[in-house]
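Internal tracking record. Fields below are filled automatically when a chain is submitted to the structure queue. Please do not edit lines marked as system-generated. If the sequence contains nonstandard residues, flag them in the REMARKS field before resubmitting.
Queue: standard
Priority: normal
Entity type: single polypeptide chain
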Amino acid sequence: MIHLQNIEKVYRTDTIETRALNHISLDVAKGEFLSIMGPSGCGKSTLLNIMGLLDEPSGGELKIDEQKTDHLSDKELARFRNKKIGFIFQSYHLINDLKVLDNVELPLLYRSSTARERKGLAATALEKVGLSNRMKHFPTQLSGGQKQRVAIARAIVGRPEIILADEPTGNLDSAMGNEIMEILIGLNRNEGTTIVMVTHDEQMARRTHRLVRLFDGAQVG
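SYSTEM-GENERATED OUTPUT FOLLOWS
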């Protein structure tokens, strides 16, 4: 589902060159749940952003579902990303002025669906994460765990084949973190969703199919 071959990411200024990723080669199979671990600044989020087509590699080859993406225009990339990939962020990225249902519906605004269809799909996604009774609430009225559930519902509302999760349990206590992890495991097991998760939590990482470690932008172990 995701193919990386000799991926490099280099940031350059007039005086300094920083190598964030160094020859990363990695294949993520369809239906796999992969976790990525490593110390802060090792390139985990950079790698996830490249997988999610939010950033371009400086070198190497990237394929998503056997399709090369380096030739796509910005508009084509956005359309491809919206269809194929759902994102979950550590800091939720919810819009406080919108109700929960409207937050979840947002990715569907870029598709040719009716308002009624969007509302129905958003309600279904919220039901999957156990928040049917919070649709009319605002994010400021929710706990951290509930906000992350909303973020997961938003990520899955368009039925993407891939979910990329950046520290999805990082801001939560252990009990709520385990609940979020159970939702992700359920999505992977029951719906075959391919998931790549960046985490600092060894216990969470060991609940996934495979663990990849990064150090100073390179794979180790």
